């Protein structure tokens, strides 16, 4: 016997079908306990992560998030590759680098729309510095070898005709250890994030030679928009845990929305005291410098992915643009839903 649907049944069925993706997006996280590895949590580079954690936005999404801090992004990535963490809060370009080594990782929410990294030389160690060529044979401090700070330094060196092997890179972290390394003369120059670089700059302890802390500076260094910090994970994790990734993206986008209207006193009240590196005024001065570099809605621009690939390929021989499928390195599906939810 052939069953026919009444108009009312048909309307209800159609409505349920349309609602299904929305219901799925708000489903219970498959994994409520999530381990996130980050390289240099006190840096402004990862401020959205800290804000979302401190204001309880992960908990509000039904997540129990454990954040482990490492010296730099490359170390945080090792934690996920080794299985001791699920998700990396790190630089987007790592997903491109990984694909060139046949490992597929995917970014699913953006935290920063500019790298917020400055490269500077020590006037004490290099009083006669004239051009990037003078860095040959020098020691350059980076958060950790292979990290984003290292990538920016490599790019600046390659444009001046120098190879990474023409200098020595030394991992110094992103906070008090980095300040100490430069001040004690262990390094001659440094590529690092804020608040560290602004603190050194304001005290005349570093002379900035390349700056991606603003959108304009980023455009000058990279020739286009350059996505920075994001949450990324093995593609398999993203596919198996869509509700978990949605909850993580929701929490970050909620944090990004809060940051758009937060005043300096709100930031000071929210971040841990140790992040201020003992100087509240300088911390706020550096926040004002990088504010525009913070993402607005968690979406990664297609143009930005192309800029990152071009930048990496310019000094990384293993990265062959024709062999990279950029579409696999990021998805905006989760951020788009989060943006709609929070009107970011």
Concise overview:
This protein has 344 residues and is α/β, with parallel strands linked by helices. It contains 15 helices and ten strands.
Give keywords:
five-stranded mixed β-sheet; disordered N terminus; D-Maltodextrin-Binding Protein, domain 2; 344 residues; alpha/beta; 2 domains
Which geometry do the CA atoms define? globular
What is the strand tally? 10
- What characterizes the major β-sheet? 5 strands, mixed
Order of helices and strands: HEHHEHEHEEEHEHEHEHEHHHHHH
Q: Examine the secondary-structure arrangement and name the CATH architecture of the largest domain.
A: 3-Layer(aba) Sandwich
Main location: periplasm
Pfam families: NMT1 (PF09084)
Subcellular location: Periplasm
Family: Belongs to the bacterial solute-binding protein SsuA/TauA family.
List the helices and strands and how they pair.
Blueprint: H1 7-25, E1 33-39, H2 47-54, H3 57-60, E2 64-70, H4 73-81, E3 87-91, H5 93-99, E4 105-110, E5 117-121, E6 139-142, H6 148-159, E7 168-171, H7 176-183, E8 189-193, H8 196-202, E9 207-211, H9 215-222, E10 229-234, H10 235-240, H11 242-261, H12 264-270, H13 280-290, H14 302-315, H15 333-342
Parallel strand pairs: 1-2, 1-3, 6-7, 6-8
Antiparallel strand pairs: 3-10, 4-10, 5-8, 5-9
